[in-house]
Amino acid sequence: MTPARFRECLTVVGWSQAGGAARFLGRTGRQMRRYASGESPIPDEDAALLERLVAWIEENRPRR
User: Fold this and answer.
1) CB–CB of 42/35 below 8 Å?
2) pTM (predicted TM-score)
C-alpha cells in the first residue's frame, strides 16, 4: 500500500491518522503519520485490514 492509498482509505473510513486508524490498527499516532508520509512502510497486515474495511464500507453504502 502506498502512502497515498493509505490516506485515501482513511478518508473513505472517516478517520484521522492519530484517531480511529491508530486505535483500529493498534498503532500510535506517530506511526500513522509515518505511514502517511512514506517514512515507514505500511505492513501488509495493516494494509489488508484497511482495504477490507474500505471494501465493506463501499459495498454497504446506501444506494441513492
Assistant:
1) yes
2) 0.87
